[in-house]
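Entry for the shared binder. Reason: the reviewer on the internal report wants the predicted structure included alongside the sequence.
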Amino acid sequence: MHTQDLLAADTGMGAVTLRVANLDRMIGYYREGVRLSLLSNEGGVAVLGRGATPIVVLEHAPSMQHAGPHDAGLFHTAILFDTKADLAAALYSVATKYPQTFTGSADHLVSNAFYFTDPEGNGVELYWDRDRTEWSWTHGMVDMDTKYVDPNEFLRENLTSAALDGAAVAPGRVGHVHLSVGDVATAKEFYVDRLGFATTAGWGEALFVSAGGYHHHMAMNTWNSRGAGRRQLALGLGLVRIEVPAADDLGALVARMHDTGVQTADDGRTVAFEDPWANRIEVTAPGRG
């Protein structure tokens, strides 16, 4: 793949929008549990984040139904913390206030991760990255694994009162977004060959892709959704946001999508399109519009 066919190296992920049935309950989970700050709440839309960075946008949609358990959609939103202490503070908060939502933990070699399911069934990952100098690559693929991490030991070693006091304002952002899709080959064709991510790992029924040599900005798996078709309008994932560093990068993306037959909508600020499972993607660049 030529450089011009790839997303810019400084590409990152923006806030993930979730359609929710019970807005107050979901605000409570992400604010009191995950320890995000409520940045705004008006017109049935609540934005939560860390510092001034939006991470989750909750859209009240009480008339919608939940998607089926094997439909395509969100597998998890992964929130990246700058330090182990910040991660430990968030882990402690959600595990003590919403212990029934904890689903597991892992050392992925590149990161430490803790997994939850929010009150409406959306997956949540809280994680911290090891320094890139500690990552290993083999034939262009990053080495990742899934090793057990004892969450109580992690808390004993990393939880500090300072991090607990500042958990809602310390830096944090969406590090990656993991989707449930119908098949991996189609996901690769769309997210790599058309959108411009590079493949960084593949585990059987899962694909990991990134820009700029990150371990992954997005992932797609068929663990619960093999064979799934296009999504119907339902609760759950509403929007995935990707942020490219400059307007020229967005222009290159639009040209690439056009050349590969992907329909896009451009309102002057964002470029929007759907993946093969009707997951909506919006791409933005600073200063555009």
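Summary line for the report: The radius of gyration is 18 Å.
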